[in-house]
Design brief:
The protein is built from four helices and ten strands. By secondary structure, the chain is an alpha+beta fold. Strands 1, 2, 3, 4, 5, 6, 7, 8, 9 and 10 form a ten-stranded antiparallel β-sheet that branches. A hairpin with a 3-residue loop joins strand 1 and strand 2. The longest helix is centred in the middle third of the chain and has 37 residues. The chain is rod-shaped, with a radius of gyration of 58 Å.
């Protein structure tokens, strides 16, 4: 009994002579004929995402570009960005703010001017604060002290009276220069009667300095009723001076007006050879 017939293709066998010595190779369609394919199913989606080839069986020749009319379908790339490199997206309120600035340029310009003026006044106030602090420090550090005057000797001559004064500058960090005020004089009086007038000579002193100075007063004791010659009666005299004192320490300068009043009690004023100073007290004060 005969079995089922096989198709002719199933029974056909190649002879050993017909077999080729070349190994079997995969069949490829030339890339130039891709556009002429009647229908070609697209490659699977996972192949397109993870491969630069058009399909697993279609390969692009290396280092050669296809003709313009046979450009294959654009590849799809998957780009993975590390999480720490994902930048923050501005909130929608920022877009509203930008839109307002774009629609109101004059307002933005005015805001810029106001901001500049505000910074200008802030800097001005800051500089004023610094200058005030420096001035306050200089005021306390370089603060002149009242000079000290004392009457050392008094000599009466026929046409003038000589007074020897001791002047001390107690300011330890500033030197001082003394001079007469404009139209100022030194006067010596007895019971409101003028005995002599004169000028204070210009002098300079170092810090914490002490010097003696002679002052000549033009006048005579004949202008007042005095005790008789040889009398031991005390005579009270008043010496008044108005001076300008200029204190200086490097770039720091301070100008003061000093008023000095000395109460002097003497004996034997009419005895030119011997005038005894019983007591003296000089007080000074700044007028400004």
């Amino acid at each position: 009994m005969e079995g089922a017939r096989l198709p002719p293709s199933a029974t056909f066998h190649e002879s050993d002579d017909d077999k080729s010595d070349d190994p079997p190779s995969a069949w490829h369609r030339p890339t130039s004929s891709l556009s002429a394919l009647p229908s070609q199913d697209p490659p699977p989606h996972h192949w397109r995402n993870h491969s630069l080839n058009l399909s697993p069986i279609l390969a692009t020749p290396p280092r050669s570009l296809p003709p313009p009319h046979s450009i294959p379908e654009l590849e799809t790339y998957v780009v993975q960005v590390p999480r720490d490199q994902v930048y923050w997206t501005p909130p929608p309120e920022h877009a509203k703010y930008v839109e307002e600035r774009r629609n109101n340029p004059e307002k933005s310009k005015n805001n810029g001017c106001s901001r500049r003026l505000m910074w200008f006044f802030i800097i001005l106030i800051f500089l004023g604060f610094i200058i005030g602090a420096i001035t306050l420090i200089l005021h306390f550090v370089f603060n002149p002290t009242l000079p000290v005057f004392a009457v050392e000797r008094l000599t009466v001559k026929p046409s003038n009276i000589e007074v020897t004064l001791r002047v001390e500058n107690p300011t330890s960090n500033m030197g001082v220069s003394y001079m007469m005020k404009n139209n100022g004089v030194i006067s010596l009086t007895y019971k409101n009667k003028n005995l002599g007038r004169g000028k204070f000579p210009k002098m300079s002193q170092a810090a914490s300095g002490s010097d003696n100075i002679n002052v000549k007063l033009v006048g005579s004791t004949k202008n007042a009723v005095m005790p008789p010659r040889g009398s031991k009666q005390q005579v009270s005299l008043v010496l008044m001076m108005e001076l300008k004192a200029g204190y200086e320490a490097g770039p720091v300068k301070r100008n003061k007006e000093v008023v000095v009043t000395c109460d002097v009690k003497v004996k034997g004023l009419l005895d030119a050879k011997k005038v005894e100073i019983v007591s003296e007290n000089c007080e000074s004060e700044f007028k400004n």
